Each structure stands twice: as C-alpha cells, then as structure tokens.
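User: quick one, sequence for these tokens?
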C-alpha cells in the first residue's frame, strides 16, 4: 500500500502533540503513519498531524464505520460492553494502542438523567500519558463522539484527570504485546 498521498482538498487537521488546529492545503504531500480508530496520523513537511476520519476522502481513503448495533438494556440504558468497545476505537495519534489498553481510562459509569430530557449520560474519567500533551482535548472529544454512537446514550462527559498519574504498569497485557514491552 502506498502510504504517501497528496491531499485532494483542503482539510483542517490537529497538530501533534500541541493540539493546535491547522489547515492543510489541497495538494499537500503527506505520509500516512497510522490509520487507527477512524482517524489518520500523517507526516507533512511541517510535522505530524491528525486528520479526522470524516476527511479520509481527501487522502483517498474510505472512512471507517464505527456505528453500533448493540441493543439497550431492559430499562433503555446503554450496554456498558458496547461503551467499552467504542472506547477501544479511540487512539492516541502517536501510539498504536487504544486508550483502554493503554490504561488511560480510569472509570466509566452510566447515569440516568432527567434534563434536558430523560435519558442516560456516560461519565468517563481518563488521563493521558503525559501532562503536557496538547492532544488531550482531541482524544477526549473523539471518545465522546464514539460513546454517543451507542444506542441509549443521550449525553457523554469525558473528563481528563491527573490523579493518579499514569504509568506503564497500567497498560494491559494486550497493549504491552502491541508495544513490544513483553
């Protein structure tokens, strides 16, 4: 597969690791490094950028479908396993392991809400591998957008916390295998 491409149109991308939004011009030459979780990590002459899956066509790619066909529970609540599955589609753009297997998700709970309309909110507490990572808001927003695809979810709150601090012991066995740590 040829990983070098020219953008067919202008796209807004997120610079890595600062998290700043930048416009990449049409015909810009990029090299695709990672295509996980429905987004693309690309290298340009100006550094690394993350391009959202919805803009995959500019790279000549077909966007991944992360829709969820999971049933809701008897009370209409979302299936927690479907939420965890969606979180496994969220990746740090520099690391080829999802945020769950990286040990970045500290908790996930589902709460019944009455306002603005009755439904269910998913609350997630997560961290990042480094406090200075500017990609935190982008990763949290990616998690939120994927959670909102789960049937029964009407709202989601993804909060970044630094307590406890993340360390490599929090990586799952599967994550360690993907990273070559075991």
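Assistant:
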């Amino acid at each position: 597969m040829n990983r070098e491409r020219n953008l067919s149109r202008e796209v807004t991308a997120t610079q890595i690791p600062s998290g700043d939004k930048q416009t990449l011009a049409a015909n810009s030459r990029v090299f695709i490094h990672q295509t996980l979780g429905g987004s693309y990590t690309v290298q340009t002459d100006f550094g690394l950028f993350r391009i959202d899956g919805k803009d995959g066509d500019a790279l000549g790619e077909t966007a991944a479908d992360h829709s969820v066909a999971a049933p809701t529970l008897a009370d209409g609540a979302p299936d927690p396993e479907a939420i965890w599955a969606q979180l496994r589609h969220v990746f740090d753009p520099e690391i080829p392991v999802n945020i769950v297997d990286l040990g970045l998700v500290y908790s996930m709970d589902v709460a019944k809400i009455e306002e603005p309309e009755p439904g269910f909110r998913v609350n997630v507490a997560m961290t990042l591998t480094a406090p200075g990572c500017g990609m935190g808001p982008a990763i949290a927003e990616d998690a939120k957008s994927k959670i909102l695809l789960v049937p029964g979810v009407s709202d989601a709150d993804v909060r970044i916390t630094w307590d406890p601090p993340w360390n490599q012991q929090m990586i799952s066995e599967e994550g360690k295998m993907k990273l070559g740590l075991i």
